[in-house]
Protein backbone atom coordinates (compact mmCIF):
# COMPACT_ATOMS: atom_id res chain seq x y z
CA UNK A 1 0.00 0.00 0.00
CA UNK A 2 2.88 2.37 0.77
CA UNK A 3 4.23 1.87 -2.75
CA UNK A 4 0.83 2.71 -4.23
CA UNK A 5 0.74 5.90 -2.16
CA UNK A 6 4.26 6.83 -3.23
CA UNK A 7 3.51 6.18 -6.89
CA UNK A 8 0.33 8.26 -6.72
CA UNK A 9 2.12 11.16 -5.07
CA UNK A 10 4.76 10.96 -7.81
CA UNK A 11 2.11 11.15 -10.55
CA UNK A 12 0.37 14.16 -9.03
CA UNK A 13 3.61 16.02 -8.36
CA UNK A 14 4.74 15.30 -11.90
CA UNK A 15 1.46 16.68 -13.26
CA UNK A 16 2.07 19.95 -11.41
CA UNK A 17 5.67 20.14 -12.62
CA UNK A 18 4.48 19.83 -16.21
CA UNK A 19 2.04 22.71 -15.76
CA UNK A 20 -1.27 20.91 -15.32
CA UNK A 21 -3.59 22.63 -12.87
CA UNK A 22 -5.41 19.58 -11.52
CA UNK A 23 -4.92 15.81 -11.55
CA UNK A 24 -7.31 13.03 -10.58
CA UNK A 25 -7.11 9.24 -10.91
CA UNK A 26 -9.78 6.58 -11.42
CA UNK A 27 -9.78 2.82 -11.85
CA UNK A 28 -9.80 1.68 -15.49
CA UNK A 29 -13.09 -0.11 -16.04
CA UNK A 30 -16.11 -0.10 -18.31
CA UNK A 31 -18.34 2.98 -18.12
CA UNK A 32 -21.67 1.19 -18.21
CA UNK A 33 -23.91 4.16 -17.31
CA UNK A 34 -22.12 6.43 -19.73
CA UNK A 35 -22.43 3.80 -22.44
CA UNK A 36 -26.21 3.93 -22.16
CA UNK A 37 -26.26 7.75 -22.26
CA UNK A 38 -23.92 7.85 -25.26
CA UNK A 39 -26.01 5.33 -27.15
CA UNK A 40 -29.18 7.34 -26.50
CA UNK A 41 -27.47 10.56 -27.60
CA UNK A 42 -26.26 8.99 -30.84
CA UNK A 43 -29.64 7.40 -31.55
CA UNK A 44 -31.29 10.81 -31.26
CA UNK A 45 -28.89 12.21 -33.87
CA UNK A 46 -27.47 14.84 -31.56
CA UNK A 47 -24.01 14.45 -33.06
CA UNK A 48 -25.20 16.01 -36.31
CA UNK A 49 -22.63 15.53 -39.05
CA UNK A 50 -19.94 14.36 -36.62
CA UNK A 51 -20.11 10.79 -37.85
CA UNK A 52 -16.82 9.93 -36.17
CA UNK A 53 -18.72 9.92 -32.86
CA UNK A 54 -20.33 6.65 -33.96
CA UNK A 55 -16.97 4.92 -34.39
CA UNK A 56 -15.22 2.75 -31.81
CA UNK A 57 -18.17 2.73 -29.40
CA UNK A 58 -16.72 -0.16 -27.41
CA UNK A 59 -13.40 1.65 -26.95
CA UNK A 60 -15.12 4.85 -25.86
CA UNK A 61 -16.67 3.10 -22.89
CA UNK A 62 -13.78 0.84 -21.88
CA UNK A 63 -10.18 2.15 -21.61
CA UNK A 64 -8.87 -1.41 -21.32
CA UNK A 65 -9.50 -1.72 -25.06
CA UNK A 66 -7.21 1.23 -25.71
CA UNK A 67 -4.30 0.12 -23.53
CA UNK A 68 -3.59 -3.56 -22.87
CA UNK A 69 -3.70 -4.30 -19.17
CA UNK A 70 -4.92 -0.79 -18.32
CA UNK A 71 -5.44 -0.30 -14.59
CA UNK A 72 -5.58 3.47 -14.06
CA UNK A 73 -7.04 6.47 -15.88
CA UNK A 74 -5.21 9.69 -15.02
CA UNK A 75 -7.19 12.83 -15.85
CA UNK A 76 -5.47 16.20 -16.13
CA UNK A 77 -6.91 19.71 -16.40
CA UNK A 78 -5.14 22.64 -18.03
CA UNK A 79 -6.56 26.12 -17.56
CA UNK A 80 -7.08 28.27 -20.66
CA UNK A 81 -8.99 31.22 -19.17
CA UNK A 82 -7.36 34.34 -20.67
CA UNK A 83 -6.11 37.48 -18.97
CA UNK A 84 -7.29 39.67 -21.86
CA UNK A 85 -10.49 39.73 -23.94
CA UNK A 86 -11.38 40.48 -27.52
CA UNK A 87 -12.81 43.82 -28.42
CA UNK A 88 -16.58 43.38 -27.99
CA UNK A 89 -17.57 44.95 -31.31
CA UNK A 90 -15.77 42.31 -33.41
CA UNK A 91 -16.69 38.75 -34.50
CA UNK A 92 -16.16 36.61 -31.41
CA UNK A 93 -13.77 33.67 -30.96
CA UNK A 94 -14.14 31.11 -28.14
CA UNK A 95 -11.53 31.68 -25.42
CA UNK A 96 -9.98 28.26 -25.89
CA UNK A 97 -8.79 29.38 -29.33
CA UNK A 98 -7.08 32.63 -28.33
CA UNK A 99 -3.58 31.12 -28.37
CA UNK A 100 -1.79 28.13 -29.86
CA UNK A 101 -3.57 24.87 -30.62
CA UNK A 102 -3.99 23.03 -27.32
CA UNK A 103 -3.61 19.63 -28.97
CA UNK A 104 0.05 20.35 -29.65
CA UNK A 105 0.67 21.89 -26.22
CA UNK A 106 -0.94 19.09 -24.23
CA UNK A 107 0.36 16.23 -26.35
CA UNK A 108 3.91 17.31 -25.57
CA UNK A 109 3.13 17.40 -21.84
CA UNK A 110 1.55 13.94 -21.94
CA UNK A 111 4.54 12.50 -23.79
CA UNK A 112 6.85 14.02 -21.19
CA UNK A 113 4.74 12.64 -18.36
CA UNK A 114 4.79 9.10 -19.71
CA UNK A 115 8.53 9.31 -20.37
CA UNK A 116 9.18 10.43 -16.79
CA UNK A 117 7.03 7.59 -15.44
CA UNK A 118 9.06 5.09 -17.45
CA UNK A 119 12.28 6.60 -16.10
CA UNK A 120 10.94 6.12 -12.58
CA UNK A 121 9.30 2.69 -12.91
CA UNK A 122 10.62 1.04 -16.04
CA UNK A 123 8.34 -0.59 -18.60
CA UNK A 124 5.04 1.32 -18.17
CA UNK A 125 2.51 0.82 -20.94
CA UNK A 126 0.30 3.81 -21.55
CA UNK A 127 -1.26 6.23 -23.99
CA UNK A 128 -2.16 9.89 -23.70
CA UNK A 129 -5.24 11.41 -25.28
CA UNK A 130 -6.54 14.91 -25.86
CA UNK A 131 -9.61 15.09 -28.11
CA UNK A 132 -7.87 12.72 -30.48
CA UNK A 133 -9.28 9.30 -29.65
CA UNK A 134 -12.49 7.64 -28.40
CA UNK A 135 -12.22 8.61 -24.73
CA UNK A 136 -15.04 10.00 -22.56
CA UNK A 137 -12.85 12.63 -20.90
CA UNK A 138 -15.55 14.35 -18.86
CA UNK A 139 -16.83 11.08 -17.41
CA UNK A 140 -13.32 10.16 -16.28
CA UNK A 141 -12.77 13.63 -14.85
CA UNK A 142 -15.92 13.31 -12.75
CA UNK A 143 -14.99 9.81 -11.61
CA UNK A 144 -11.58 11.05 -10.52
CA UNK A 145 -13.02 13.83 -8.38
CA UNK A 146 -12.12 16.80 -10.57
CA UNK A 147 -15.65 18.12 -10.90
CA UNK A 148 -19.12 17.35 -12.15
CA UNK A 149 -20.86 17.52 -15.52
CA UNK A 150 -22.78 20.79 -15.44
CA UNK A 151 -26.14 21.39 -17.02
CA UNK A 152 -24.27 22.91 -19.97
CA UNK A 153 -22.42 19.63 -20.53
CA UNK A 154 -19.07 21.05 -19.39
CA UNK A 155 -16.95 19.74 -16.54
CA UNK A 156 -17.13 22.20 -13.64
CA UNK A 157 -14.43 22.32 -10.96
CA UNK A 158 -15.80 23.62 -7.65
CA UNK A 159 -12.85 25.95 -7.00
CA UNK A 160 -11.94 26.91 -10.55
CA UNK A 161 -14.92 26.80 -12.94
CA UNK A 162 -14.99 25.19 -16.37
CA UNK A 163 -12.45 26.92 -18.63
CA UNK A 164 -10.16 23.89 -18.77
CA UNK A 165 -8.84 21.50 -21.38
CA UNK A 166 -9.18 17.85 -20.31
CA UNK A 167 -6.42 15.35 -21.05
CA UNK A 168 -6.31 11.63 -20.27
CA UNK A 169 -3.40 9.28 -19.65
CA UNK A 170 -4.28 5.58 -19.46
CA UNK A 171 -1.60 3.38 -17.88
CA UNK A 172 -1.16 -0.26 -16.87
CA UNK A 173 -0.08 0.40 -13.29
CA UNK A 174 -2.32 0.50 -10.19
CA UNK A 175 -2.59 3.76 -8.24
CA UNK A 176 -4.69 5.17 -5.41
CA UNK A 177 -8.03 6.22 -6.84
CA UNK A 178 -9.89 9.42 -6.05
CA UNK A 179 -13.57 9.58 -5.12
CA UNK A 180 -16.10 10.79 -7.66
CA UNK A 181 -17.24 14.40 -7.38
CA UNK A 182 -20.75 15.49 -6.42
CA UNK A 183 -23.05 17.74 -8.45
CA UNK A 184 -23.37 21.36 -7.35
CA UNK A 185 -25.47 22.96 -10.09
CA UNK A 186 -28.53 22.87 -7.86
CA UNK A 187 -31.60 24.60 -9.29
CA UNK A 188 -29.59 27.03 -11.45
CA UNK A 189 -30.63 27.10 -15.13
CA UNK A 190 -28.67 30.11 -16.36
CA UNK A 191 -26.88 28.17 -19.09
CA UNK A 192 -30.07 26.53 -20.36
CA UNK A 193 -31.83 29.89 -20.43
CA UNK A 194 -28.98 31.69 -22.17
CA UNK A 195 -28.31 29.33 -25.11
CA UNK A 196 -29.65 31.21 -28.16
CA UNK A 197 -30.11 28.13 -30.34
CA UNK A 198 -31.68 25.86 -27.71
CA UNK A 199 -28.79 23.39 -27.93
CA UNK A 200 -29.04 22.63 -24.20
CA UNK A 201 -32.15 20.49 -24.52
CA UNK A 202 -32.13 19.33 -20.88
CA UNK A 203 -29.66 19.33 -17.97
CA UNK A 204 -26.30 17.83 -19.11
CA UNK A 205 -27.70 16.95 -22.56
CA UNK A 206 -26.28 19.01 -25.43
CA UNK A 207 -27.76 18.66 -28.90
CA UNK A 208 -24.53 19.06 -30.80
CA UNK A 209 -26.43 19.53 -34.04
CA UNK A 210 -27.90 22.79 -32.68
CA UNK A 211 -24.77 24.19 -31.02
CA UNK A 212 -23.09 27.35 -32.34
CA UNK A 213 -19.69 25.66 -31.92
CA UNK A 214 -20.87 22.82 -34.15
CA UNK A 215 -21.97 25.17 -36.93
CA UNK A 216 -18.90 27.41 -36.80
CA UNK A 217 -16.28 24.67 -36.43
CA UNK A 218 -17.52 21.15 -37.18
CA UNK A 219 -20.01 21.80 -40.00
CA UNK A 220 -18.36 21.22 -43.35
CA UNK A 221 -21.25 22.46 -45.52
CA UNK A 222 -20.75 25.55 -47.64
CA UNK A 223 -23.64 27.34 -45.94
CA UNK A 224 -25.13 27.58 -42.46
CA UNK A 225 -28.95 27.11 -42.51
CA UNK A 226 -30.80 30.42 -42.96
CA UNK A 227 -33.22 29.52 -40.16
CA UNK A 228 -30.42 30.22 -37.68
CA UNK A 229 -29.83 33.76 -38.93
CA UNK A 230 -29.56 36.22 -36.06
CA UNK A 231 -29.07 33.54 -33.36
CA UNK A 232 -25.27 33.45 -33.19
CA UNK A 233 -24.69 36.61 -31.13
CA UNK A 234 -21.56 37.51 -33.18
CA UNK A 235 -19.83 34.17 -32.49
CA UNK A 236 -17.59 33.48 -35.47
CA UNK A 237 -15.61 30.51 -34.08
CA UNK A 238 -16.99 28.46 -31.22
CA UNK A 239 -19.15 29.84 -28.42
CA UNK A 240 -18.70 30.56 -24.69
CA UNK A 241 -22.20 31.71 -23.76
CA UNK A 242 -23.08 28.76 -21.52
CA UNK A 243 -19.76 29.10 -19.69
CA UNK A 244 -19.80 32.89 -19.44
CA UNK A 245 -23.14 32.85 -17.60
CA UNK A 246 -22.18 30.00 -15.24
CA UNK A 247 -21.85 31.27 -11.62
CA UNK A 248 -19.01 28.83 -10.93
CA UNK A 249 -16.82 30.65 -13.43
CA UNK A 250 -16.55 33.60 -11.08
CA UNK A 251 -13.68 31.53 -9.68
CA UNK A 252 -11.84 31.40 -13.04
CA UNK A 253 -8.31 32.81 -12.98
CA UNK A 254 -6.02 33.70 -15.85
CA UNK A 255 -3.89 30.82 -17.11
CA UNK A 256 -0.10 30.81 -16.84
CA UNK A 257 0.64 28.74 -19.96
CA UNK A 258 2.73 30.89 -22.32
CA UNK A 259 1.55 28.91 -25.35
CA UNK A 260 -1.97 30.18 -24.68
CA UNK A 261 -0.93 33.84 -24.87
CA UNK A 262 -3.57 35.37 -27.16
CA UNK A 263 -2.68 35.98 -30.78
CA UNK A 264 -2.77 39.81 -31.04
CA UNK A 265 -4.99 39.79 -34.11
CA UNK A 266 -7.66 37.78 -32.29
CA UNK A 267 -7.80 40.41 -29.55
CA UNK A 268 -7.57 43.45 -31.77
CA UNK A 269 -9.00 42.77 -35.23
CA UNK A 270 -12.05 44.87 -36.06
CA UNK A 271 -14.96 43.57 -38.10
CA UNK A 272 -13.54 45.16 -41.25
CA UNK A 273 -10.09 43.64 -40.66
CA UNK A 274 -11.63 40.18 -40.40
CA UNK A 275 -13.58 40.85 -43.58
CA UNK A 276 -10.49 42.03 -45.47
CA UNK A 277 -8.28 39.14 -44.31
CA UNK A 278 -6.72 37.25 -47.23
CA UNK A 279 -6.11 33.52 -47.30
CA UNK A 280 -2.35 34.08 -47.29
CA UNK A 281 -2.62 36.29 -44.19
CA UNK A 282 -4.92 33.77 -42.53
CA UNK A 283 -2.43 30.96 -43.01
CA UNK A 284 0.44 33.07 -41.69
CA UNK A 285 -1.30 34.58 -38.65
CA UNK A 286 -3.20 31.47 -37.56
CA UNK A 287 -0.72 28.74 -38.51
CA UNK A 288 -0.54 27.55 -34.87
CA UNK A 289 -4.13 28.44 -33.96
CA UNK A 290 -7.22 26.24 -33.57
CA UNK A 291 -8.86 28.54 -36.15
CA UNK A 292 -7.05 26.62 -38.86
CA UNK A 293 -9.45 23.77 -38.15
CA UNK A 294 -12.23 25.70 -39.89
CA UNK A 295 -9.86 26.72 -42.67
CA UNK A 296 -10.08 30.05 -44.43
CA UNK A 297 -13.22 29.05 -46.31
CA UNK A 298 -14.99 28.17 -43.07
CA UNK A 299 -14.06 31.48 -41.44
CA UNK A 300 -15.31 33.36 -44.52
CA UNK A 301 -18.57 31.42 -44.41
CA UNK A 302 -19.04 32.21 -40.73
CA UNK A 303 -18.31 35.90 -41.22
CA UNK A 304 -20.79 36.13 -44.07
CA UNK A 305 -23.45 34.41 -41.98
CA UNK A 306 -23.02 36.99 -39.22
CA UNK A 307 -23.71 39.84 -41.62
CA UNK A 308 -27.33 41.07 -41.54
CA UNK A 309 -29.27 39.92 -44.63
CA UNK A 310 -29.66 42.49 -47.36
CA UNK A 311 -33.17 43.57 -48.28
Automatic annotation (TrEMBL):
The active site is at 131 (proton donor). GO terms for molecular function: epoxyqueuosine reductase activity. Catalyzes the conversion of epoxyqueuosine (oQ) to queuosine (Q), which is a hypermodified base found in the wobble positions of tRNA(Asp), tRNA(Asn), tRNA(His) and tRNA(Tyr). HAMAP family: QueG. Its cofactor is [4Fe-4S] cluster; cob(II)alamin. It catalyses: epoxyqueuosine(34) in tRNA + AH2 = queuosine(34) in tRNA + A + H2O. Residues 173-205 form the 4Fe-4S ferredoxin-type domain. Its main location: cytoplasm. Belongs to the QueG family. Pfam families: Fer4_16 (PF13484), QueG_DUF1730 (PF08331). Monomer. This is Epoxyqueuosine reductase. [4Fe-4S] cluster 1 binds at residues 185, 188, 191, 246. The gene is queG.
Amino acid sequence: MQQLDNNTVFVKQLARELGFDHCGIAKAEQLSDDAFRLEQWLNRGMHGGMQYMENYFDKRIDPRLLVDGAQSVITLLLNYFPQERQRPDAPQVAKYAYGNDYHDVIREKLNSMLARMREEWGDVQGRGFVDSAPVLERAWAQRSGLGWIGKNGNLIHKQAGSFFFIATLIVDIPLVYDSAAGDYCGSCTRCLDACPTGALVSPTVVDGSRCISYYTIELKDALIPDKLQGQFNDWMFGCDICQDVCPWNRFSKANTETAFTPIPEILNFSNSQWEELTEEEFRRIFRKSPLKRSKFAGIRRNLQFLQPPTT
